[in-house]
Amino acid sequence: MLVERDVIPDTPVVIEYALTDQGRSMEPILKSIEQWWMLLNDSYLLVKSVSHLSHPH
């Protein structure tokens, strides 16, 4: 299980979520995906801005 769910019987009902140890162990994987996305996004923005300079509206 990656996430624990805790229901607190209050008024109104409160539901809390927390990562388990297994969920926290995914942090390096998620950081790697984040870095990949940032590189991809930076490349896209660079191409878009260069394209915009070459072909102004």
TrEMBL record:
SUPFAM superfamilies attached to this UniProt entry: Winged helix' DNA-binding domain
Domain HTH hxlR-type intervals: 1-45
Name used for this protein in its record: HTH hxlR-type domain-containing protein
Domain of life the protein comes from: Bacteria
Entry-linked PROSITE patterns: HTH_HXLR
